[in-house]
Structures are given as structure tokens and as C-alpha cells.
Amino acid sequence: MAKDREVFFCKECGHESAKWMGQCPACGEWNTFSEAPKVIKGGKHSSRGGVGPKTPVGVSKKPSKITEISIDSEDRYITGIGELDRVLGGGLVKGSLTLVGGDPGIGKSTLLLQMCRELAESKVKVLYVSGEESLKQIKMRADRIGEFNSNVLLLCETCLDSVEEIIDIPATSPDVLVIDSIQTIYKEDIDAAPGSVSQVRECTASVLRIAKQLGISVFIIGHVTKEGVVAGPRMLEHMVDTVLYFEGDSTSAYRMLRAVKNRFGSTNEIGVFEMKGDGLKEVLNPSEYMLQGRPENEAGSIVACTMEGTRPIMIEVQALVSQTNFNYPRRTSVGVDYNRITLLMAVIEKRMGIHLSDYDAYVNVAGGMKINEPSLDLAIIAAILSSYRNRAVDPHMLIFGEVGLVGEVRGVGMAAKRVAEAEKMGYTSCIIPKANLTQLENISIKCIGIQNIRELGEYI
Ligand code: TYD
Ligand code: MG
Fold first, then answer.
1. Is the entire prediction scored with pTM above 0.85?
2. Which domain does 205 fall in, by range?
3. SS3 assignment for the chain
4. In angstroms, what is the span from residue 223 Cα to ligand 2's centroid?
5. CA 201 to ligand 1 centroid distance, Å
6. In the chain, how many domains are there?
7. Which residue, of 131, 159, 193, 221, has the greatest Cβ tally within 10 A?
């Protein structure tokens, strides 16, 4: 039998070519070409011919006036998990396709199983397809989460064609479908291993059609690569309506659900969860959660406020500065960028005249959050100074602000929200960039505006 001609295509942009190339002529990326066996034409479930949504059966192809299209709230299911609903933009849109990515063991399967349970309570039929675990394993997880009703159907299957057949049977046709995970399922007519670029691409295209033609809301779980992006073609993220990442440190119970793409809502929203022995619990007050167990009146502990989307979260920044026993002083950071720490220490040395070259410095964001926001600069400097001088700062004081190389304290975004959060949490004062002072209204806590890090010295 003559071997099918293979095609190569770019994992980044999907450009196809008859031969392998080092650089993609379409997007210019290097080393992104991957082999894709040709789809056997005329297969029972052949899915070639565009990946976009097809017109649902019975819908006219006439253009519609934009003013005449109505959206009603019934187009969404409320999942019953408030944090998830918020990230989805106010509930799960019917007929949408959502990709959930995250590190192994972070709790993707748990989150979606919990969602299935809640949806089933409100009489939504769900089908949970797992290509990773046996029915018994899923049931064991389900038992930890709680009681399930019979609206939840489980299926262990890796062949997408079989899943499609089950969906076609009215008795088992669901309103919401979960596929755990896209890397384990395959289509029969694609001659490649599950998880390969072409399988992932074709399976997602089929699932997209299930969502759009049948109006089933579909969730697909995606494994992430070492770099933290969903494994498979980059196009995957373009094909789906919503991309959610479930993040967190596997050593801490704290988990964050973040939308990086959402066709039905803002990508600024985050959902905060805590992994407990009986499933994921919503964290309704993340600031309180992050600050619990914080030592009071200890040198080196400062409260800062970071923004996760539009949500302020108060966190504790800790520093330990101690005389070094090494030739080169050590600098270590957990939760913040190491280079930022060395930069801020250089600014302290130069602008405040404090010599830290004989001291080791360790900086840590308590609670396992990773923060990449310059508004933390001032709190890091305050924590380092507090530990260096061995003086505790007022435990009910919030400090935030960006620090530049000449020691100036620059304004940050959403200062009013941060201060309001501190007020809500019962804090009594805050040190903030002077530039932000004018943005504060109706604030009853004491706000000190500073322009240079030298002024910080007065309070520590
Ligand atoms: P899981 O949902 O299987 O992760 P993923 O699908 O992202 O790989 O969750 C795995 C971890 O969560 C596992 O280490 C056990 C833990 N876990 C709990 O701590 N409590 C629970 O109630 C459940 C169900 C899991
Ligand atoms: Mg899983």
C-alpha cells in the first residue's frame, strides 16, 4: 500500500508545508515544524475542512441585523461555584468551549468534577469523559467531594468518535461535557498518537463542532508543558472561546483560577480556592487568607497589596537580613523575581547610604503566591530595612509603591482599591506614593505619601 504523503505544519501558526523547514515562512518562528499524517479522506468522522463553527442545523444563513440579536441571561448556566462563575464572566455560556490548563496535580479534575456536581444539583445533565482515570478512581475522588446525583454521567473513553456516538443518543446527551484530558483522546481517522499535535488539533476541532452545533458547553482539560503553556499547537488557544489556567504552588493549598482569554467576559477576574481534604473550597476573602498567621511586631514583616486583575489581595512580604559568612553575600527570593531584589538592594545602598554588601538577604512572599508587580518594591525595601535595623513596623500599616533606580517612589495603578482593601481589613495607616494621594476619596485611614525611599527611613 502506498504510504500517505505526510504534511508538516507550524505548531505556532498552523502554516502547512510539504516539507520540513527550520523556520516558518508565515510566522517566522524557528523549530516549530511538526509532522502531521494526512487525514484519511472520506473517513466516517472525517473532520477536515475548517475548524470554525459550522452553522447549526436549522439556522438560516442570512445575515442578521446586529440590533436585532438578543442575548438573555438564560444563555448561561450558573455553575454554583461563585469563583468559577466570576472567572467565566458570570456563569457558563451555553455552547461554549473552555480550555482549562494547569500543572499536574494542581486540581483541574477536582475543580471540574465539583462543577459537575453543582450543575447536576440544578438539573443540568453532565457527561464527564476521562481518558486518564478509571471509573473507580473518579468515584473515589467524587466521594471526597460529596454526594452526587444521577445527572452526572461518567465515561472512561479515549476515542472521541465513541464519545460523539454517546452524545447522539438522547438518553445520554448532556448539556455540559467535560473531557479530561485533550492529550489522551484521539480520533480514529487521524493516524497519529494521542497527544500529538495533529490529534490535539483535530480533536479540538471536533469538540468545537460539538459545542457549536449541539449547543453543549464543553470543557477540555489540557496538560501544560514545562514552560507553563498548554501542550499542543498554539492554535488550540485560538480555537476555544475561553482559556483558563489553574495555578498555584503544589506545596501550598492556595489555588488561583485565571482567565487568559474569554470571549464572554473580562480576563481581569480571578477565582481563589483552597485545596482541602474534601475538595476545593472557595476563598471569599483572599486578603484574610493570605495574612492569616502573620506575626505581629516582628522585624522584617510588611503588609503589601497586589492586584490580581481587578481584585486587591493583601499579602505579607518578609525579609531576613543577616551578617554573611560567605565571601559573596547571598540573596534569595521566593515569590518575587530574584533580579528585582538585587536591583532594589543596590538602590538602597546607593540612595540611602546603607551598606548591605556584608549581609545576606532573603525575601519571601508568605502564602505561596508568585508576584510580578512593581508595586511591591516599596514593601520589599521596607521589609529589608526593617530586618536590617531590627525594628518592627506598625502591624496595621500597608505599604506599596514602585521604586525607580534613583530612589524615587512612583505611583501605581488602582491605588484607591488597594487602600480601600486595607481599610476593609481594619488597617489604620498606609505609606503610598505621593502621586497616588490625589486619587483617594472617602478614605478614613491615615495615608502618608512619599516621593523618595529616604522618607521611608522615618517610619522604620
Ligand atoms: P487533581 O484534580 O487530580 O489534579 P489534576 O487533575 O490537576 O492533575 O488533584 C490532585 C491533587 O489534589 C491530589 O494531589 C490530591 C489533592 N486532593 C485533595 O487534597 N483534596 C481532595 O478533596 C481531592 C479530591 C484531591
Ligand atoms: Mg486530572
1. no
2. 76-284
3. CCCCCEEEEECCCCCEECCCCCECCCCCCECCEEEEECCCCCCCCCCCCCCCCCCCCCCCCCCCCHHHCCCCHHHEECCCCHHHHHHHCCCEECCCEEEEEECCCCCHHHHHHHHHHHHHHCCCCEEEEECCCCHHHHHHHHHHHCCCCCCEEEEECCEHHHHHHHHHCHHHCCCEEEEECCCCCECCCCCCCCCCHHHHHHHHHHHHHHHHHHCCEEEEEEEECCCCCECCCCHHHHHCCEEEEEEECCCCCEEEEEEEEECCCCCCCEEEEEEECCEEEECCCHHHHHHCCCCCCCCCEEEEEEEECCEEEEEEEEEEEEECCCCCCCEEEECCCHHHHHHHHHHHHHHHCCCCCCEEEEEEECCCCCCCCHHHHHHHHHHHHHHHHCCCCCCCEEECCEECCCCEEECCCCHHHHHHHHHHCCCCEEEEEHHHHHHCCCCCCEEEEECEHHHHHHHC
4. 9
5. 27
6. 3
7. 221
